[in-house]
Amino acid sequence: MVKPRLLTPGPVAVPERVARAMTRPIIHHRSSEFVELFKGIRADLQYAFQTQQEVCILACSGTGAMEAALCNLLSPRDRVVVVRGGKFGDRWAELCTTFGVDPICIDVEWGRAVDPADVRKAFDHHPDAKGLLVQASETSTGVFHPVRALAQVVHMQPDRLLIVDAISAVAVHELRMDEWGIDALISASQKALSLPPGLGFVALSSLAQAALSRSRLPKYYFDLARVLETQRRNQTPFTPPISLLYGLAESLKMIVEEGIDRRVQRHEVMARVVRGALSAMGLELLVNDSHSFACTAVRVPDGIDGKVVQRRILEDHGIRLAGGQGRLKGKILRMGHLGDLDVLDMIAAISAIETALAALGYPVKLGEGVRAATELNHELGFRGDSA
Ligand SMILES: Cc1ncc(COP(=O)(O)O)c(C=O)c1O
Question: What is the pTM of this model?
Answer without folding.
Answer: 0.98
